[in-house]
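Reply to dn_fold:

You asked what the input looked like. This is it:
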Amino acid sequence: MALRLTRDKSDTLLLLAAALMVLAPHFAHLPLWISALACATLLWRAAVTWLGKRMPSTWLLVPIAVAAMAGVYRSYHTLLGREVGVAMLVLLLAFKLLEMHARRDLFVVTFLSFFVLLTNFLYTQSMPTALWTVLTLLVLLTAQQSFQYTGRVPPLARRLRTTLKVGALAAPLALLLFVAFPRIQGPLWGLPGDASSARSGLSDSMAPGTLSSLAQSDEIAFRVRFAGAAPAQQQLYWRSIVLGDYDGRTWTRVPRKRGLQRLEVAIHARGAPVRYETTMEPSNTRWLALLELAAPDLGVPGFRLRDSDEMEQFTTEPIAHRVRYQASAYLDYTLQAGESPQRMTHWLELPAGFNPRTLALARQLRAAADDAPVQQLSNAVLTRFRTQDYRYTLEPPRTGANAVDDFLFATRAGFCEHYAGAYVVLMRAMGVPARVVTGYQGGERNPVDGYLTVRQSDAHAWAEIWSQQAGWQRVDPTAAVAPERVERNLARALPRPAPFGLAPLLDLQNNPDSWLAQLRFAYAALNNSWNQWVLDYNPDRQRSFLEELSSLFGHWRTALGAVLVAVLLAVLRWQRARRPADALEALYAAFCRQQLRHGYGRAPSEGPRSYAARLRSMPASTDKHAAMEQFLHLYGMLKYGAGGTESRSASLATLTTLLPLCR
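and this is what came back:
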């Protein structure tokens, strides 16, 4: 026997389900005790509804609410701010569900749910979040609709269909407001100080383990779309920060002394530039990652740019929201060739008292090469990495005070920062100006939308060496040990162990031709489109889109076609409005049209009984009056009664028979 709930119980349980859907996304960032208390409160309210018990008294709820507010203060140490406000709203919604005594309280809970649902966009505006919000909104509107009925309540499926119709009617207006309403610069949902949470990125210092920990993050750093053919994977070096000061363990940027005049940096670029568009995710740092070597015509909307003698590009303020900018790069260039060696002495400095074995090795390599050119000295170091037992790993062993000595002679295992740092130390010890460059290398091309995705796991460190003839030249010591890291990507060079026996799935994901990879590419392309056209629909993009739209509709043929489509839609809507919804209404409409011809049309406020009373004054035969009376009585029974399917079919047949008699 199926369990039938009363109307009050079913409506309340539907509202509780909607409230749970509203609160669920907040559980990811709220303290555990608040999430547990909210769930317990909802379960308490569901038990009260299911068992038909009385609501808890105010004397019980007030101490619980006061204790909860004290817990919020203890967790956040304040009662102000976004995090605290959302936590209080979540608890307020949960507690209000235990205090619904009147119809007004139902609407208070519903509208409070709408507001709490909106606050989820303060934390994330991803596509899954938007889909979940739409689904939750439909359930909330259905619950709100359920409280509106005063008589017989339609089934849940019919209420859901009504909600979908309401949403379909509101969607065009929402789309029009989104496209045409004036936009503001910056993120719509960002609050001051809220954008700096839990973002990883490159730092302006490098120590053993810095990049290997960052490389385990799959978070997207930026996306790139090339105007033409994309460069080869081996040419995708995204330059960011140049490190030159070394204290024996950590590399940092060379500080610029106040008042020191900047150098005249000689650059000679060859060939046509590679043009591309970058969509950079918020990093809360000031550093840009640009394809070497960036052209000077760079601009980032909303930010002022600075550069350095080392070809770094950075903003004056941290980048706390997604930005899009156009850039170009010269892949073939010379940098500071013919420079005076005296101006390069600070790229030879090494700390005293560190790494004696490394310095001895450098003297040995220098003596063996005698007066060899810089390139030959570099090849000697790379040959050592390539031929001896060195390993490329994400989990290098710990090193001591003499980190480079331990790496070169003891552990022989490291990530890119180990190889780049050791290489620069050796080159400096041999009298060659050298420095470390950090940034990103490579990226994953998406065949669906053509974008190149660069992740934090693509973070990389390489080196630059200087000679008077060739200037600064890029050298990647990691490529001598793990060439597949540069030719492909980190996942191919260092495949991660798959837990729980999921190695086949991991292999499918890394294989670009597999169905799983194609599914991943399709979702990434869809998510990128969401970012580009929804989250990044800024004033510039809005202006450009509206200008394109106006030029498109400015053509008379296009405008004429739009008018014809609008007329066709209006005609279809009019025809649909004329056509009654079912056979019963069709018969009633035909009856009303018959009487209208005799001057007895039905008023909009008249029901079948009052209409029948007025038709009695019509001059007509007794048979016609009897037929009209029977027709309207039967129509009223079918319209407002509760007949079965068989009786309804028979009654419709009777109405069809009576209709000609009413002429």
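The two ends are 51 Å apart (CA to CA).
Hope that clears it up.
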